[in-house]
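In response to a reviewer's request, we include the raw inputs and outputs for one of the modeled complexes. The two entities were modeled together in a single run.
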Amino acid sequence: MTPAAPGAGGGPLDDRLDLALRLSERFGGAVRGAEEFRGDLAVTVARDRLHDVLAMLRCEPDLDFAFLMDVTAVDHLAWGRIPRFDVVYHLYSLTHHRRLRVKCPLEEGDAWVPTATDVWQGADWFEREAWDMYGIVFEGHPNLRRILCHEDFEGHPLRKDFPADKRFFLPRPANLREQAPAWVRERAGGPAAGLISD
Amino acid sequence: MSASDTRVTDGLRPPGLDESAALAPREAPLDPLKEELLEVNIGPSHPAMHGTFRLKCWLDGETIVWAVPEIGYLHRCFEKMAETHPYVQVIPYTDRLNYLSPFMNNVGYCMAVEKLLGIEIPRRAALIRVILSELSRIMDHMVCIGTNLVDLGALTNFWYLFRGREEIYTITERISGARMMVSYARPGGLMRDSYPEFEDDVRRALTSLPRYVDDVNALITRNRIFIDRTRGVTPITAEEAIDWGWTGPCLRAAGVPYDIRKAAPYHGYDELDFQIPVGRTGDVYDRYLVRMEEMRQSLSIVAQALERLEPGPVLVDDPRVALPPKNEVYNSIEGMVNHFKLIFEGLKPPAGEVYSYTEAANGELGFYIVSDGTGRPYRVHCRAPCFAIYQNIGKLLQGRMIADIVAIVGSLNVVAGELER
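The model returned the following structure tokens for the whole complex.
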């Protein structure tokens, strides 16, 4: 009976260390640090190699991280760490039963990373959420809009300098018509079309 | 995972089905006589949408040419709120994530905190968590199948399944005081021990619940109308489902036997004997079959866990994590100090970050917690399974008929509370 056992699903310790070693061998200086806490293996990757690393993690047969489980970000402002943001990816390999966390540190004025939507389609909404909540730009994302907050919302609510009790009044429905391709919009008709602004 | 761990639901499929037609890509035919596309809003508040979300569809006749989803109406800033509360006070917020199976969210969150603390929970607490989680899974699947069938015009099944759900609610009410928002798990175990008749109640539920499942099975599984409405509707290949980050019954319906209870067993699932149902085409019908079989497997898990249940503590004996028993608080200075410190300062995990994941009713429910060593989490991120599942709804709907929307959205079991957090 081992609830939340350290290392559950992460495989044996040797395997995790071996994975970290192989990653740093293959990517050289791009994989900057590997840390292990409670059985979770995390590596830090510089932004300029991030996309290559993610693509190789997905495509190489001995890595084969087919699942992008999660993309999110952390704001380190409250404890004053510089660089301020981390973009965090959680990967899972179905064939090797391995988990890996990839982190990419970003400076405040330069908070962008290349999108992972061309590696995993499923990165789509997770990246939109990270943009919405933290204002991190995912370069090359096909539809980088707010997803949980309204499009008129100002600021990025999960940043540590955004007050938790701030309120907005946002009465207008979101404009979904903008998200349809031009050939659909041009042909749109019917009784409702044109009457409502969205 | 060995082959005997999985069970293809094919045996339940009526014979003579041509799967190739179901898997063929569908194109959106444009009617040359109709120049205009009809623009239709579905939701945000619509009886056929399960929760408050909105779809805008452009129709050519009855065929959906393009669809754009909008979500966020039920966004409640769960993650921001979690950062402003002590660890234990986040638990009631987790109830409201997937409100069809609230207890599983409690477990998912508490397991993440336990992983952060590096503690193990007592065996009795783990087994009660398993029993209630599997009952919650049954409840969740009952609502999913029941409402999906109502949308397709089969109202009777809704009554059958909701009666079964009511019986489970009676148990959750007696054990936690709340029918729905149970908040029953705690980091380190459970809020309190079960009530004396708990085991009898669960045994009674185990004898009565199969009837509801069997009744629906008899009415629906080989029902011609249901099969015509669901078979071949939005099939998805295994590769595509994985690429979109699908987990849970929707992924397993596409034939991928990924279930965290087998892949990374927690709370003693490795001791229990059960199978993972997998489908073949991933269409709406397969999702239904997988959920039906999962309910049966869950009943068997509950029975096995109940056999193993023995008296014992349900909360770790660690004053830094769990509140001391009341008689210690009132009668010893040490107990009172521990109680006071835990209430005022909260439990303080070491600084670090963990990602913990459980098999919730919809798939992988993950909690990513960053701790700075204080009594409040520095960052809590909830990886909601249906957030990944719902994101390609626009593509799924393309080329489908408008009447299919209710069948598709219902079968994905999108729960707004979890989707929008």
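As requested, we also summarize the result in words. Chain B has a mean pLDDT of 86. Chain B has 18 helices and ten strands.
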